[in-house]
Amino acid sequence: MPFVSRNPYTEELIREFPSQDWDSIEARLAVARLAFLRWRETTFAERARALKSIAEALREDIEDYARVITQEMGKPIKQARAEIEKCARGLDYFAENAESMLSPIEVEMGAHKSYVAFQPLGVLLAIMPWNFPFWQVVRFAAPAIAAGNVVLLKPAPNTPRCALALREAFDTAGFDFPLLDVLFAEVEVIPDIIRHPAIAGVTFTGSTRAGREVAKVAGEALKKCVLELGGSDPAIILPDANLDVAIPQCVQGRYQNSGQSCIAIKRFIVDTLVMEEFLERFIEQSRLLRMGDPMDEEVDIGPIARADLRENLHRQVQESIEMGAVVHLGGKLPEGRGYFYPPTVLSNISPDMPVWKEETFGPVAPIYPVNSRYEAVQVANASSYGLGAEVFTENLRLGEELARMRLEAGNCFVNHFVFSDPRLPFGGIKQSGFGRELGIFGIREFVNIKTVYVA
């Protein structure tokens, strides 16, 4: 199956890229291994200069890179620009901080020397999704490359041009070997790539189902892996929440990237004391969002990235309606071209409905009433996922307690929707995966944590 670039707004085919055969893949593996042997000998200063030059290249051609994202997966152009700028910030951050994060840690043992050192592992395979086709790669690649590793990127089948554009940006580092190369590999050969001796580790972002398969193969091959999988993030709105803060945060947290985000708010858990007002104001703000041509600066909601993804989202909504969900907004497939799905707000939810128990990847907001914060936490944690969670309350002490002690997720925010940042570790628990990206914990995922003892 070829890698197909199709504009989800016009539905027009842009370009097809043939899958690489095994000989071509092995050749790239060999080149990547040789690149690692050279790259690991560089100093942190040399690596910092490389990452800084990549960041500069992204900023200089931000319009071109953003346009590729918008054309290929439908992200509104203003959000695509923000994604490129976020990549540049991430590259700058690890350029400036990698050396301190990976400096040896002395341990007093009474020996001449005893310390913990960090060394790169080698060539890392990155199996990446389509929804943030630049940032998902950079948030892994920036710390991994700063640590001395090199990366082979296997992109999603519908974002090949984004992958090639990103490789072009990394090539501006100016080395005669690739720090990041692209594999247009069929799903069927991924296990063989993971098992290949040239591969030292693998990172995967995508569905829980596919993540299990990656983890199984990596485990059998004894290769380090990090998994960032699905999410069904809850937002708890307590009765003392400032709705002037909570409503805009919840709207952005649900609808950013047209709702196609692992850490989007996907379940709204609202205290009955504010349920009526929250629902009314959330519907009002959702109705104001503009859906249309993602190249339009005023558009908030672009098309869903692929036709099959929209079909599955609509199935989840329709099955939930048949089970008794009440539609306050949206819920219908719009006529005309483009894989659009309108902002959709549902109430009268039961936990067995698809929009509640499954991950919804699109602008769908199910809202569920509770009678206490204890019930809210119980409902929030009653999920197989554990990626992110939000609490909205004016009682910051209580909000922090719920975030820190009660909610079962890797990223818990108070009075703000969950987002990723180079300075903070990012990842999930339960069926949302394991391992961390970003921050000091992310950069230490793909290194050999080595004990050195000199008597």
What is this structure's SSE topology?
Blueprint lengths: L2 E4 L6 E5 L4 H18 L4 H17 L1 H12 L3 H25 L3 E2 L6 E8 L2 E5 L7 H12 L3 E5 L5 H12 L8 E3 L7 H6 L3 E7 L2 H13 L3 E5 L4 E5 L5 H13 L9 E7 H16 L19 H16 L3 E4 L14 E4 L6 H4 L6 E7 L2 H9 L3 E2 L1 E5 L3 H11 L4 E4 L14 E2 L2 E2 L4 H5 L3 E8 L1
Parallel strand pairs: 5-6, 5-8, 6-7, 8-9, 10-11, 10-16, 11-14, 13-14, 16-17
Antiparallel strand pairs: 1-2, 3-4, 4-20, 9-19, 12-13, 15-18
Name the descriptors.
alpha/beta; Aldehyde Dehydrogenase, Chain A, domain 1; 20 strands; Aldehyde Dehydrogenase, Chain A, domain 2; 455 residues; 15 helices; 7-stranded mixed beta sheet; 2 domains
Derived from helix and strand composition plus strand pairing, the structural class reads alpha/beta
Q: What is the alpha-carbon Rg in Å?
A: 22 Å
As for the number of domains, it is 2
- Mean pLDDT, nearest integer? 98
Q: If strands are numbered along the chain, what order do they take across the biggest sheet?
A: 12-13-14-11-10-16-17
Question: Biggest sheet: strands, sense, closure?
Answer: 7 strands, mixed
Q: CATH superfamily assignment of the largest domain?
A: Aldehyde Dehydrogenase, Chain A, domain 1
Overall geometry comes to globular
The helicity comes to: 40-55%
Query: Tally the helices: what do you get?
Result: 15
Beta strand count? 20
Provide the β-strand percentage band: 15-25%
- Give the end-to-end Cα distance, rounded to a whole number of Å: 58 Å
Description:
By secondary structure, the chain is an alpha/beta fold. It is built from 15 helices and 20 strands. The protein has helices spanning 22-39, 44-60, 62-73, 77-101, 135-146, 160-171, 190-195, 208-220, 243-255, 272-287, 307-322, 354-357, 373-381, 396-406, 439-443, and strands at 3-6, 13-17, 105-106, 113-120, 123-127, 150-154, 180-182, 199-205, 224-228, 233-237, 265-271, 326-329, 344-347, 364-370, 385-386, 388-392, 411-414, 429-430, 433-434, 447-454. The strands form 5 sheets. The protein has a 7-stranded mixed sheet, with helices on both faces. A 6-stranded mixed sheet has the order 7-6-5-8-9-19, with helices on both faces. α2 runs antiparallel to α4 (77-101), α3 (62-73) packs across α4 (77-101) and α4 runs parallel beside α5 (135-146). It is globular and about 65 Å long. The model has no long low-confidence stretch (mean pLDDT 98).
